[in-house]
Amino acid sequence: MDTANQLASVGTFQVLKLPLGFIRVLQWLFAIFAFATCGGYTGQLRVSVVCMEKASSNLSIPIDFAYPFRLYQVSFDAPACEAMRRERVFLTGDFSSSAEFFVTIAVFAFLYSLVAAVGYIFFMNKYRENSQRPLIDFVVTVVFSFMWLVSSSAWAKALSDVKVATDPDEVQLLIPACKISTNKCGSIHGPRWSGLNTSVVFGFLNFVLWAGNIWFVFKETSWHKGSSRLTGGASEKQAGTFTQQPYNQGSFDQSGSYSTQGNLDQPSEYSQVGGPTSYSNQM
Fold first, then answer.
1. What angle do CA 38, 41, 44 make, to 5 degrees?
2. What is the mean pLDDT of residues 110-134?
3. Burial class of residue 185 in the structure, from the number of CB atoms within 10 Å of its CB (0-12 exposed, 13-18 middle, 19+ buried)
4. Where is the protein found, in the record's own terms (predicted)?
5. Is the pLDDT of residue 253 over 80?
6. Which has more pLDDT, 43 or 18?
7. Residues 34, 106: contact at Cβ < 8 Å?
8. Around Cβ 88, how many Cβ atoms within 10 Å?
9. How many whole angstroms separate alpha carbon 242 and alpha carbon 250?
10. Quick check: is 165 in a domain?
11. 269 lies in a domain?
12. Does residue 116 lie within any of the structural domains?
């Protein structure tokens, strides 16, 4: 409990409530799902070969394959339907480059998002004081978002090719005994693709997360803060030029000679036409 309290007092965990920190945690979590579902995959399919000589038949031939999907290295023994002889058959295709690229991006994204989240929690003040760190964070975020898009697209295409190469109907065509019309070949079951399909989904979700986080990281850079200061200074300057003219009570001198600025003690120029002007004149 003391260690947890010390960490809580040192770290600023409130940053995890902000989009900048919260999205980093999601990136870290989704990267784990991406490389775990792809890198930890193992699949199996089964085919059967029925020869004219029943003793030579094999009704269940298991074929196992796994990450990184170098299928040309995957082999199995199939009956030749000739005097109990068996043949070694290899699958076709090499899809390791796309799969390994996808997993590599996922692992590096996992490590970077973890380091970034820890840095936000414990060193947020130093992160904002140094203008270079937000810029580096911004550039890395842009690069990872692009790499997630490329690797996920490449892996999605490779996965469709893996499905074709491991289709039991396609594998049967590789068995020499199945090319003889007197023999019968069939498929028992194919591989399950739910795990690999999920890896592709997590790949594109990671792209969305990293691309969406570009804006929140950009707001911490000096580029955004500098443009904000320029925008604020321009609006203040524009507001300063708009000033009201001072109101002067005596400035309204249109036709009619309206003026209220005169002294009240001065005699009024207003007099009735033909009327008495003083008390002595009346007398």
1. 140
2. 89
3. buried
4. Membrane
5. no
6. 43
7. yes
8. 8
9. 23
10. yes
11. no
12. yes
Q: Which of 12-26, 38-52, 246-260 has the lowest mean pLDDT?
A: 246-260
Written as six digits, the tokens of 67 are 């990450």
pLDDT for 5: 55
Domain assignment of residue 279, yes or no:
no
Measured between alpha carbons, how far is 22 from 257 in angstroms, rounded to an integer? 72
pLDDT of residue 16: 82
Number of domains composing the chain: 1
Mean pLDDT across 250-275: 43
Which token pair is 122? 């414990």
Range of the domain at 96: 15-219
